[in-house]
Design goal:
- The chain has about 325 residues and is mainly alpha-helical.
- Helices cover about 80% and strands about 0% of the residues.
- The longest helix has about 35 residues.
- It is an enzyme of class 2 (transferase).
């Protein structure tokens, strides 16, 4: 993915004179760029806060250090798998490493994911009102992807809520899906697996209901998630400020980034590579008139919102869980 990113970046600047590109890079306002860096770090940090709140409600000894590993590892596996499909299983593994019960870990992460998806849908509705006419006027083809992406996120939320609260259906579906395993293991082993899986589903269901009924906790999660996404959506605005575009409309720029977020989810290539860069250039070329600065803005945006997550996620992946929880797991 890093190699593909370098190739895409080269393609974006291939027709730009080298001295013009160097001049634009040298003229960047580092203070505004640092604000953009701060936004993405706050994005990671606030997701860790949400994870810690949800998991610590059932596992009081769960540390914030271990919670911080979760969103970073998620960024890594989201970034290297198609449709970001690897992020959720990776988070479960990280929590299991930290001594959290599998059912409780899954229910907490699923609740976090439902809130996250709900906030994306709400943000999209607001952004649609603000920026959809601009989107249709400038690049009407992307408008189709945006609407389709919204429908996918909406279906995901409905499906997750069914899994969380339609307990009997979930157990029946899982038991049907694992039946082929009987062909590869003994009847005794299969029976043990079935009992264990059903116990985990029960734990998952009861934990989901328990967390869902803690309205104060859920209100805090919604508020923190709102600010988490808010800081993420502000990143293009501060990048534009760092390039000297002080007259940029913060509301419109933020709304366009919300729409880009949905477009990226439509591309099966890990990280939305190619689609993300194309969407950014199409939507922001009216604001950033210089082709050189537009390419620089796009590259900086991808470094902060994608490649930084890969690097930090790799570091988090090799970190050990806190020693206290490791000792608790030992017999």
């Amino acid at each position: 993915m890093l190699g593909l990113g370098l190739l895409i970046s080269w393609y974006a600047v291939r027709d730009i004179k080298f001295d013009v590109l160097i001049n634009d890079l040298a003229s960047i306002n580092l203070w505004w760029l640092l604000v953009a860096v701060g936004c993405i770090l706050l994005y990671f940090g606030l997701e860790a806060v949400v994870t810690h709140m949800l998991v610590a409600s059932s596992t009081p000894d769960f540390s914030f250090r271990d919670a911080l590993r979760v969103p970073l590892v998620e960024q890594l596996f989201n970034g290297i798998t198609p449709f970001s499909s690897g992020g959720q299983p990776a988070q479960v593994v990280v929590l299991l490493q930290s001594g959290v019960d599998g059912g409780r870990a899954t229910s907490a992460l699923l609740m976090k994911f439902v809130v996250y998806q709900a906030m994306i849908v709400l943000n999209f509705i607001v952004s649609l009102v603000i920026g959809f006419n601009y989107l249709v006027d400038k690049v009407h083809t992307l408008a189709i992807f945006v609407v389709f992406g919204f429908l996918i996120h909406l279906v995901v939320i409905v499906g997750l809520l069914m899994v969380m609260y339609w307990h009997s259906f979930t157990k029946k579906l899982v038991n049907v899906c694992i039946k082929p395993l009987r062909w590869f293991v003994t009847a005794e082993k299969f029976s043990q697996w079935q009992i264990t899986i059903n116990q985990k589903i029960d734990t998952f269901y009861y934990e989901s209901v328990r967390i869902g009924h803690q309205w104060k906790l859920m209100l805090k999660v919604f508020v923190v998630t709102f600010f988490q996404l808010f800081f993420y959506y502000l990143i293009p605005y501060f990048i534009m400020r760092s390039l000297g575009y002080s007259q940029a409309n913060v509301v419109m720029v933020t709304s366009l980034d919300v729409l880009i977020f949905l477009v990226i989810s439509m591309f099966p290539i890990p990280g939305g590579a190619g689609g993300a860069e194309y969407s950014f250039e199409m939507l922001f070329r009216s604001y950033i008139t210089s082709s050189s600065k537009l390419a620089v803005a796009m590259i900086l945006w991808r470094i902060l919102t994608y490649y930084l997550g890969l690097i930090l996620g790799t570091v988090a992946l090799v970190m050990r869980p806190s020693r206290r929880l490791q000792q608790q797991k030992e017999p």
